[in-house]
Amino acid sequence: MKLSELKSILDSSIPLSFQEEWDNSGLQVGHPDLDINSVLVTLDVTEAVLEEAIRTGSNLILSHHPLIFSAMRKLTGFSSTERIIMNSLRNNIAVYSAHTNLDMVNNGVSMKMAQKLGLVNISVLRTLKNKLLKLVTFVPDDYLDRVREAVFNAGAGVIGNYDYCGFASEGKGSFRGGENTFPFAGEKGMLHFEKETRFETILYSHLRDRVLKALLAAHPYEEVAYDIYSLDNDNINCGLGCIGEFAEPVDERVFLHNLKSVFKATGIRYSALTGRHVKKVALCGGSGASLLNDAVKCRADAFVTGDIKYHTFFEPDNRLLLVDCGHYETEKYTVEILYDLIVKNFPNFAVRFSETNTNPINYL
Questions:
Q1: What is the pTM of this model?
Q2: 3-state DSSP call for residue 223?
Q3: Average pLDDT of the chain?
Q4: Domain 3-99+333-353 in CATH: superfamily?
Q5: In this structure, what are the phi and psi dihedrals at residue 55, rounded to the nearest 5 degrees?
Q6: Distance between alpha carbon 201 and the CA centroid of its chain, in Å?
Q7: Using CA atoms, how far apart are residues 286 and 14, in angstroms rounded to an integer?
């Protein structure tokens, strides 16, 4: 298939608008018209991973960590990133990355950690903000179902685990068409009153253009009246980190050994033991120390993440057990999310996990 087909699914399922401002998720290398035969899924894009893609005939590398993080001033081949880009182009291999936007989506990186640990009652630790819009439009009564169905099918109307969410109220609209108009009802030049329904619904900001296109296509009016409002609501199903519970409390040392086993961590660093059992656990894949206070506020018994600095280990102050399980280790199962997404949408497409260990950290 064309790269553009895969890119469309990835862009919509893991919205680029969810990524942090400093991030660079999305298509890194390759033209959308490139023909794709198979995908190699990896955490990082390294020269060894590129060699594996060439060897296995995979012409798309799908990664969690972006190959290109910042603007590049030259392309000479003196850095590994430059060499990967140049060799990818030579071999017609595209690179696509889903980074902090994959951290933010429901069932993202941290949720996968929670599932691996067997937690229940899982929810987002720090919810996503400023990504919701409200659409309000006015529709002739007989066309309400048609318009409503169109915008819902375009992705509007989703609140948590509910979809097709909207509100309608009846009223009367007025308009007068000018000389060059062809009004749906009434006559040009004459003031007309029409029984209309005010219809409103909610949508993610990245779906704005798609939903508006559906609205305009389904609405019978020549000129469609609509309003779009930015909402300050939190999106409770998306955001950074997550928190869940064990069915039964476990001893702190048993918990640490369980982490070591599940995430295959060669070395785990942790704060002073609290002397209490662990039932409620907060998690954030990668570098999530900034969520420590969120974990404390949620009364977590333990907070697991990676890349924790020395002085941060003092901050729990016996309120919870702080655990650094490693950046690579807490994100290693991200490849399963990407794999499942591709297979779900393209069941017969060739997708393989990279066999290259990209963890740059070694332990003595």
A1: 0.87
A2: coil
A3: 95
A4: NIF3 (NGG1p interacting factor 3)-like (3.40.1390.30)
A5: -65, -35
A6: 22
A7: 18
